[in-house]
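Running log. JK asked me to keep both predictions on one page so they can be read side by side. First protein, sequence followed by its tokens:
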Amino acid sequence: MEALNIRHFKLMNGEEIIGLVAIKNDDNFIIERPVRLNPSMLGGVQFVAWFPFSDAKQFKVFKSAILQHVPVAESIKETYVNFSLKMDKPIQTVQTKTDQELLDEYESRLAAGHDLFDEEPLNELDKKRTLH
């Protein structure tokens, strides 16, 4: 792991990414398998694919778009490598519904006595109870 040049980049647009530097050119870096750092609600961060709907593995980042970059700690390297290897799995598509379709579905579920997210109908006590 020590030989891997995995760096943390702070971009001018505010994004933070981690990636394996494959090539360092005069005006850009070629970065393999970059991941974006998303802040979590509990103060940590989570890795997210930088271009989740692309099969590309290498991306060019111009030095003019980089505010700062540093090598990552060994423990982060291991986490990054494990995450990036999982990104090789095929992307599963999700069938989306329009807002109107969702609204119609929710209205029909409520009219039938169902909770919006549960499969079981609400019992009479649940229908009368007000939650705040």
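And the second, directly underneath as requested:
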Amino acid sequence: MRSAFGIIHRWAGLITAAFLFFSGVTGAVISWDHALDEWLNSHLTEAKTQGTAKPSTELAKLIEARDPRVRVSYLLTTPDAGHSLSFFVEPRIDPATGKRFQLDYNQVFLDPATGEELGHRYWGAVWPVTRENFVSFLYKLHYTLHIPEFWGSDRWGMRLLGVIAIIWTLDCFIGFYLTLPVRRRANAARAASVTRQLERGFWARWKPAWAIKTSGSAYRINFDIHRAFGLWTWLLLLVIAFTAFSLNLYFEVFSPLMKTVSSYTPTPYEQRTPRPLDQPATPKLSFSDMIAKGEADGRSRGWSEPVGAVYYAQLYDIYSVSFFKPGDDHGAGGVGPAQLFYDGQDGRPLGARVPWQGTAADIFVQAQFPMHSGRILGLPGRILISAMGIVVAALSVTGVVIWYRKRRARRAALARSQSRSSVEALAAAE
């Protein structure tokens, strides 16, 4: 059994190593995505003038008037002090072709007091990688590998990494099992030695697996790093692996699975079939309508946070209204802001997402991204996840080194065995 698990662990590690290395390195960086982006792109993120901010809805109309090819899909209602306002845009349909306009940007930055455009960029662009899109390039690489859209879907990269995450999750248990001490039967030659080992107790025999013997050979140190790092961080590795699966295969596997095992409230997005990419919905209600409706419904629920952002998902015809104070849209602890969902045609309520409320399954689902990103613990959690990104990359590299050294040793042993067999055969022939 142990031998079979060893083979499974070896091949699971080889299959996932490259993916986990890049995911680990990028994950360590994007834990600080907003801070790093502001440092690199202050010309986009800092306001140029002081003064009263214009309503975001007016600024959104200004963006659409300047470029009729775009529709604003996401806006913040109030800028953080001293910062610009960023808007996400999506292409409209070109009447001449019936296809989406081809845009070279999807995010626009405006000075909130004047409406002046400070710049725009394509968030998550594959090429060219510039200082403007560097952080978003890493962010999207982390969960999509930048695999392009084909067969009418842009989720193939997420699905591939979701499968990798499933393998990783299962391999966490196999790897843990392989660190446990082996129980051997004593034979005549080593009876006394094995008996002494068994008498030492389970922990005494398992304890070396948690340590790194720095006085050993390079291979031994590499092996100890792989095993000890995996043990000390095992629970965190399992959480990261499982949440990577749940986020990347949310619609395909995780949500259907939750519905079968627990009392789970599906989101409005799960209750609608997305439209084809070139057949988006056109809302009848505006961002202003949604902000007013959200503010009224938020007050009736007793929420103290203002409407912080509005997002329109044109493939689902759903408005999402989020409640948070300026600057709290990223980096805050917990499971994220409260949200209300509305139909884009008639504004009827479609549901709500209230932090830490709902069934146990609802709260478990809410916690998936905050746990994966560490944001559930605020700044300490982000530091921890950033460090874990380096651990994941190190485990990937040390695992491949272990496999390579063992493979080379097996080949050398086979060559020696074949050489001896040849010599014996020649001797017998003589």
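Observation for JK regarding the second prediction: The radius of gyration is 27 Å.
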